[in-house]
């Protein structure tokens, strides 16, 4: 459904573990680090863990791959810049009307695009590990980030796991709207008050769009939220604008559903071109990358 001819709405995820498990991982990695600009590459070696460095690389590639796919601009001339608040935006080609956003947590890097410029995505791993705190203790420690209604909803869930799932659900939604607006980090997260409809079951396989948000008590009805699961351990939220152009699948069919589909490392590089050639065909960069410690999932 994301493949309607002129619609730019897509939902993709790429698994870090699936990439590491590939026999051709080194070959793809060495091409990938040379297929982004020097500026885009700079931050990648700074990460301590291998997974975070790869997630950063995948985020860069997802933005470039989608920009090339949607605009037809040659890979090498695409350029991203950042707003004052640090949100990446497509500078070349200029004057595009679609929006792109990426997120990383756990095993996945998630990507969402929209036919309008404002879109935000967040993915969360549903961790049971809470630094030896009960769900209530954990929620209390994060209480400043939640509205009174959100706290009531979290605390009223019948089990520890359900309390934490509700916590991650709200966190995901807040990240998604902050990324869509380009605010990034907000001092008073509790001024965002999400209202979820418990009649819509929130579980793997669901596609929930009934959630609304108030900011300082006022309904923000210019947004639509999609709440889904990538798999049983990862939830995701997309925030997009309600007002969409005629060619958008969601304008044609407001009940349309686009679930996250898994893409491969290889497919990310299908139209990639060497943009920043490195000495020794990036063999030394790969060696440094493999010397980083791995996280334990």
From TrEMBL:
Its EC number is 2.7.8.7. Transmembrane segments: none annotated. The keyword Transferase applies. Belongs to the P-Pant transferase superfamily. AcpS family. InterPro entries: 4-PPantetheinyl_Trfase_dom, 4-PPantetheinyl_Trfase_dom_sf, AASDHPPT_N, P-Pant_transferase_sf. The keyword RNA-binding does not apply. One of its GO terms (molecular function) is magnesium ion binding. Keywords: Transferase. It is an enzyme of class 2 (transferase). GO terms for biological process: lysine biosynthetic process via aminoadipic acid. Residues 27-115 form the 4'-phosphopantetheinyl transferase N-terminal domain. This is L-aminoadipate-semialdehyde dehydrogenase-phosphopantetheinyl transferase. PANTHER family: L-AMINOADIPATE-SEMIALDEHYDE DEHYDROGENASE-PHOSPHOPANTETHEINYL TRANSFERASE, PHOSPHOPANTETHEINE TRANSFERASE. Residues 119-225 form the 4'-phosphopantetheinyl transferase domain. It catalyses: apo-[ACP] + acetyl-CoA = acetyl-[ACP] + adenosine 3',5'-bisphosphate + H(+); apo-[ACP] + CoA = holo-[ACP] + adenosine 3',5'-bisphosphate + H(+). It comes from the Eukaryota. One of its GO terms (cellular component) is cytosol.
